[in-house]
Amino acid sequence: ASRGAGGRPRPSASASPRSGAIVLDGRLGDAAWAGATPITRFTQQRPVEGAPASERTEVRIVYDDEAIWIGARMFDSRGAAGVTSRLTRRDDDPQSDILRIDFDPYHDRLHSVEFDVNPAGWRGDAAGGDRSWDPVWQVASRVDSLGWSAEVRIPFSQLRFARDSVQTWGLNLTRITHRTQERALWAYWRQNEAGGPAFFGDLTGLRIHAGERHLELLPYAVTRAQRLASGDPRSPFNRPHQSDVRVGGDLKYLLTSSFTLSATVNPDFGQVEVDPAVVNLSAYESYFPEKRPFFVEGSDLFDFGSPGCNINCGLGLDLFYSRRIGRSPQGAGLAYSAGDYADVPANSSILGAAKVIGRTAGGLAVGITDALTRREMADVALPDGSFRRLPVEPLTNSFVGRAKRDLRGGNLVLGGLLTAVTRRLDDPGLASLLPRSAIAAGLDGDAYWSDHAWHLYGAITTSRLTGDSLAIARLQRSSARYFERPDRRASAGGVAPLFDPSATLLGGSGAIARLSKGSGSWIGDLNAASVSPGYETNDLGFQQKADYRWLNGTIGRQYTTPTRWFRELTWLTGAEQYWDFDGDNTGRDATGVVAGQWPNYWSTTAVLSRSFAALNDRKARGGPLLGDAAGTGGFVSVSSDPRRAVTLNLNVNGSRADDGAVDRSVGVSATVRPASNVRLTAGPGVSRSTSTDQYVTAFADPTASLFFGRRYVFSHLDQRQLYMDTRANVTFTPALSLEVYAQPLIASGHFYDFEEFAAPRTTEKRVYGRDAGTIAATTTAGRREYRIDPDGAGPAPAFTIGDPDFNFRSLRGTGVLRWEWRPGSTAYFVWTQTRSDVAPLGDLSFARDRRALLAAPADNIFVVKISYWLGR
């Protein structure tokens, strides 16, 4: 046998042509299985690393012109009583016995697809770890006196592979025995090794005939009914009862055995779970993961610039964030400011999108996505009683192209990515908001050595945006860069430029690199990044910050051999440093982490960190640098034995800054499985933070000479939050399931001790009415205000600010009944409810706020969506 990664002999198995009919019933009694040589040799990865598997397993593989078949018998010394069989939705973790089948169809030792089955007929699948990939395949399994068995049929049309008639694939088989937490592999690697396709064995003997080009159609029809109670009854656009019917469809066309065209026309994603509510008082956008199936599937190929790290992983260079496609109209503010009422679409409509993904025999992977979103209009009611229509989103084309080439047997991968957004800006209002063209491009590379124990990743990128000077000025003033900051120093060559209101172009560059050792007893990494001030990718990427340089490094040790004290244990320690392009220290911290699983299968993670004094170039939101105090924080997570019917998880987080700021939170979640097909999860949490420098507002003030003629107002903020994440999953059959998600959230914020910083680049603050000037609370038209004179009898003008205290109550929930009524064809019955309420109170009272939340008007949306898969 050939030697594989890790220096061990690489196992090999042969697939046999199917010699007779197979009835997919999980019984393995068909004659076709008798002619196949079984795979039987499995090795424990845990709990006893390197020992033979404690239970016998036999796996047979056969194929015909259309599909590859797997027949598996998992013997159990306790018979049926030893088998843990639970039923849950596709791709959810069933916490049961599992057989995992991994193929590397290109045999490039880099990429794989995964198929999972369990004794209850549950299915899981993934492509490169992407769980959104849902190929059409079948499984049948059963439990009997010998243990359990399964039969699997995977059509070749659902896989991508080279065009050769004689095929060798990478293969691995993994058996998980839940009651003992044993993990046994056919192609074995140690727990402290990188693992993955580089360690797979070989599957030989496949002779795949060239078939006709495969076409799959997935037309859908959806009806939607809305019952909206939150609308303003005075608005002429208030339509509390609405319903509509729409049709659309998806297409998949197998261009070759390794290239697929996917397209969608008038897509609908009504079955997608709502995002959770958040309270965001920062200057930065909240990130929500992509959930729409068309964009999630195959998204791993488009990953770029975010190699991760062991501790404090930085910001990355995410050039493609698919949620930009079909986003909320960016010109909504134009409509709301133009009249008394406006009817603005919730999202930009996607007219169509197409995607081509594939890989050549020479190791070139290609991915292209293009989407066209419609010009969106809003109806506006003007003060004189007339109406007008305003554009709030232009016709937009979004393109992303990705290419990666595997070299040196997969130990070197070079790639590039290009994104381009083009807008038809024929409206002056939108032209003043959005760039006409936004292009970002980058090159990246991965190098592996020492059996993939060592990994070097590097990426360089550039961005270029053009448009009206007002749109470019808005980007210069955005929270990512604050070019207008008065103490910014223009460095040589204009690398850290000053604000230019006449500019019609914005450009910049970024780079990131990571050197890591992830295998063996000692592990660690070294990371670096540099993002210039003008770098901007938010038109089709996700970027919170520019103008920084970053260094990060960790070292640690992992213990994978069980002892009387632990089953596995890892410790890490690391530090990081941030600078801006002016050379100022904008962040420095050190962190230690210990994580382990104990003999009773409980797990614990503990983190302790210390941040050091630094300067903050974002705190004044366009003002000069201010000081950040040093502080200490920690985090502890405890999880109970996952084999039990009831599992618990506790998270405790706390930090304290040297200037008195405190942040504390406690979260508890419990998962209960009262039956093999039912899972209930409830996760209440409470948090309280006290900030000493929450930004409030800024005013022009010629007497504020230290702050370049502006006065920046801050305050202390006592923020409290109470939430409950709740899920209920009932899986009636492998094809029929019900999932309910609900998140009630109550939050409050009390602003007090309004203040200003004594000088730039310091942490010293002066509280109005105590250290400087005067402050008096007043009430005007029922609205509480504060009149502040920053220097009392001095020359500084007084000003008034509204009371920013708030209470926010929210309930967001989704119920989805999913029925795969035939392979690939699905019916969804969806109910979504949202309700929210805001009050200027500032204190959290559970009883009062709960009553207010339940009394808040509810918006209910009911969706029935039926899709029909046409393929084979």
Set down the secondary structure blueprint.
Blueprint: E1 12-14, E2 16-17, H1 31-34, E3 43-46, E4 57-63, E5 67-75, E6 98-104, E7 113-117, E8 123-127, E9 138-144, E10 147-155, E11 166-177, E12 182-185, E13 201-207, E14 215-228, E15 241-254, E16 259-265, H2 293-296, H3 332-336, E17 341-343, E18 350-359, E19 364-373, E20 376-381, E21 387-393, E22 395-407, E23 412-424, H4 428-431, E24 437-449, E25 454-466, H5 469-476, E26 505-517, E27 522-531, E28 548-559, E29 568-579, E30 585-597, E31 603-611, E32 614-616, E33 626-628, E34 631-639, E35 646-657, E36 662-675, E37 678-700, E38 710-733, E39 736-757, E40 765-767, E41 774-780, E42 783-789, E43 799-802, E44 806-822, E45 825-839, H6 846-855, E46 858-867
List its traits:
24-stranded antiparallel beta barrel, 872 residues, eight-stranded mixed sheet, 46 strands, mainly beta, globular, 6 helices
Describe the structure.
The protein is mainly β. It is 4% helix and 51% strand. The strands form six sheets. The protein has a 24-stranded antiparallel beta barrel. Strands 1, 3, 6, 7, 8, 11, 12 and 13 form an eight-stranded mixed sheet that branches. The protein has a five-stranded mixed sheet with strand order 2-4-5-10-9, with no helix packed on it. The two termini are 37 Å apart.
